[in-house]
Specification:
The complex is a heterodimer of chains A (about 160) and B (about 50). Chain A has about 160 residues and is mainly alpha-helical. Chain A has one domain (about 20-155). Chain A has helices spanning about 5-10, 20-80, 85-120, 120-130, 140-155. The longest helix of chain A has about 60 residues, at about 20-80. Chain B has one domain (about 1-45). Chain B contains one helix and no strands. Classes of the chains: A mainly alpha (about 160), B mainly alpha (about 50).
Chain lengths: ~160, ~50
């Protein structure tokens, strides 16, 4: 059960809530849900942009590597360099290829995480605030919002 | 990004193929050199002994 829903459920079961209060709580839940989503989506947008940059760099490195493999192959076919030396270069290039594979894997993992977070922003925020309890007072509260709304309604 | 990941995957696979291709051509080159050396050695030992 997420933070917003829990507050809503507790409020709805309180004896003596007026229809106007219930209406306000319904609207509050919808509004705060979309606010949560917008907040998390903003964070994820930054992460996605960073990943896109990393992806472009990775693509350039892979192209370089392919060219260098092709150079080694051409040198071998022309027989202009000793094969021991060519074998060593291939081995080094292969190590670079494995490093790029690991980079690709971490990029995929990061994308998977971003996807999971965007799919369930409430769960992500619950986890986030549980890691930083000092910030919990910043979270929106139904009782505070409702008190404010009741006061407004009284003044009308 | 998912399209990008797919194209990165394809390019990495092509890099792997390029590695195999360069390894194969190095081995082929070495084999050629060895065969050449063997042929040369054979032709030397098989050369007719010139009589005085």
């Amino acid at each position: 059960m997420d933070f917003l829903q829990r507050q809503y459920d507790v409020f709805i079961r309180t004896p003596g809530v007026s229809p106007a209060d219930v209406k306000f709580a319904d609207q509050w839940l919808l509004k705060e849900r979309s606010a949560e989503k917008a907040k998390v989506d903003g964070w994820m947008k930054q992460r996605r942009a960073a990943n896109l940059d990393k992806g472009r760099e990775l693509a350039a490195s892979i192209r370089d590597l392919q060219e260098e493999f092709a150079e080694v192959k051409a040198a071998a076919q022309r027989g202009i360099r000793p094969h021991g030396e060519l074998m060593r270069s291939t081995k080094l290039l292969g190590q670079r290829r494995e490093a790029l594979e690991r980079l690709y894997e971490s990029l995929s993992n990061s994308e998977m995480t971003i996807q999971a977070i965007s799919d369930d922003p409430s769960a992500y925020l619950s986890d986030w605030y549980s890691r930083f309890p000092a910030l919990a007072h910043q979270r929106t509260r139904l009782d505070v919002a409702l008190a404010e709304d009741r006061r407004k309604r009284l003044l009308q | 990004m998912n399209d990008d990941l797919e194209s990165l995957r394809r390019e990495l696979d092509r890099a792997y193929d390029a590695q195999r291709a360069s390894e194969d051509s190095i081995l082929a080159e070495r084999r050629r050199t060895q065969e050449l050396a063997a042929a040369l050695a054979e032709s030397r030992t098989a050369a007719p002994v010139r009589r005085a």
